[in-house]
Amino acid sequence: MEKTKNKTEENDKEQTALEKITDKSIKKHKEKNNKIILIVAFILVLIILILATIFAVINLGNTKIIKGIYIGNVDISNMTKEDAEKTLEEICELKAEKQIYLNYGDSETVITYKALGTEYQIKNAVEEAYDIGRKDNIFKNNIDILDALINGKTVDLDASIDLDIISQIAQNINNSITGAVVQPSYYIENDKLILTTGKPGLKVEEEQLLEEIYKVLSTETEDEQSIQVPLYTAIPEEIDIEKIHQEIYKEVQDAYYTKDPFTVYPEVKGVDFSIEEAKNILSETKEEYEIPLVITKPKKTTNEIGTEAFPDLLAKFSTNYNANNKNRTTNLKLAASKINGTVVLPGNEFSYNKTVGERTIQAGYKEAAVYSNGQVVDGIGGGICQISSTLYDAVIMANLKVTNRRNHQFVTSYLPAGKDATVVWGSQDFKFMNTRDYPVKISATVKGGVATISIWGIKEDVEYDISIETKKIATINYTTQYVEDPNLPVGKQEVEQEGSNGRKVEAYKVMKLNGKVISTTLLSRDTYNAMKKIVHVGTGSQQ
């Protein structure tokens, strides 16, 4: 028994010793394997580092854009920066005449990318594309290069447009759309102040329109693009009778002049009214108010102190009209009579709307052609913009400062694009300031098919020959609208309205002295809509 016990103990000792030897052997084997794995891993990392460095160095030495890079939808792989820029410039040039259709109400306006003043940030996009795989981090460069190679990478081509053009488009729509908001206005008629209340109405949401246009510019498609012009209902401003009083109040003054130095002081008609009485009148709910004025006439006028008050013709400009169109001619003569004889003192501002007044039947205006909702239709006072436009050119030629002016929605028949000035009651005025040393007097005549505006005053030491010169920037082709007409037999077509192209122009004030150009100054950048052609297509029975 003792023997067996000893034998068992010896076997256990041998087993333990064997296990220790085995564990030691396994441990040594594992350590050896770990060392081998570490060495192999180190070698692999080293190889990867070497290859990555070589890969990065090779690409750093590459002067071309890496493979798989797009700007927009244009593949510029393996191009130099110069080639990429040239390629994109050519593509963008082709986009210049692409059209965007702006829809509002039942009307449509067309504008081109070029007319919007679209400028693409080509250099910035190419630089961004070129920098891919060329950063400071070698590992990131390699990842970017492989990612572009496998999956492709697109760089956005940003674009900007002329914000003034958006304002012009919006104002053109505001001036012509049916149901547009009307702001309060006033004018003086004999011994009364005529106030018209504003009316809530539609107005273009310019910021949203801008966003919609940018969305179209970023869309890579050859399909026709159209935008529903965002409109909102605007509330007109409140009538500020105290502000109006400040604007029209004048102390009476007789006309006189001094000889040394020679200075003309034209007469000033005294104008005043009771603010409290006006507030009582305005407390009633009406569309038009008449505020009685206290008018004090001067004892002596400029006409009574002799022609020396305004001895020099500073500017003269004429436009032609169709004298056979009786209604339009009546409107021209009425508007001209309102501004004829007006004297503007140095530093004072002239307002066409406040001088001419609201165009109403009661004021004597007739229905004649006007622009509305993208078409030529009859409207009260049609044609008076010819007088404001003729005045605009005379004002520029007389070297006076224009403070408020807007071009028409379409190119007019009586003046080239860039030389007109539209007016809309309660929305758009034409204003200028007398920036000369002496008063000026406006003379306006409408006779024999010619409307003429002359500006008289006193010449200064240096007088320039001034003209308006225009430069066409873009053409906007007109579209054709076909209207089904059951009153016409099938197959017959009648043109209701001829189309005309729109355009974008720049107008410059050119000043010459002794025949030599002294200065050329940008006056305006104007955008004119294309006038659509309207064709009636017969759907009725055969005759």
Question: Would you kindly provide a written description of the structure presented here, covering whatever features stand out?
Answer:
- With 543 residues, the protein is an alpha+beta fold.
- The protein has a domain at 185-540.
- The chain is 32% helix and 32% strand.
- The chain is built from eleven helices and 32 strands.
- The chain has a four-stranded antiparallel β-sheet.
- Helix 1 (2-60) crosses helix 4 (138-151).
- The longest helix is centred in the N-terminal third of the chain and has 59 residues, at 2-60.
- The protein is elongated, with a radius of gyration of 39 Å.
- The N and C termini lie far apart (138 Å).
List keywords for this structure.
32 strands; 543 residues; 32% strand; alpha+beta; three-stranded mixed β-sheet
SSE blueprint and pairings:
Blueprint: H1 2-60, E1 69-71, E2 74-75, H2 81-95, E3 99-104, E4 107-112, E5 119-120, H3 122-131, H4 138-151, E6 153-155, E7 159-160, H5 163-176, E8 185-189, E9 192-196, E10 201-204, H6 206-217, E11 225-228, E12 231-234, H7 241-248, E13 256-259, E14 262-265, E15 270-272, H8 275-282, E16 288-292, E17 294-296, E18 312-320, H9 326-339, E19 343-344, E20 349-351, H10 352-356, E21 367-372, E22 375-380, H11 384-397, E23 401-404, E24 431-433, E25 440-447, E26 450-457, E27 465-476, E28 480-489, E29 493-497, E30 502-513, E31 516-528, E32 533-540
Parallel strand pairs: 1-6, 3-11, 28-32
Antiparallel strand pairs: 1-2, 3-4, 5-7, 8-9, 9-16, 10-12, 13-14, 15-17, 18-26, 19-25, 20-24, 21-22, 23-24, 25-26, 27-30, 29-32, 30-31
Helix pairs in contact: 1-4, 2-3
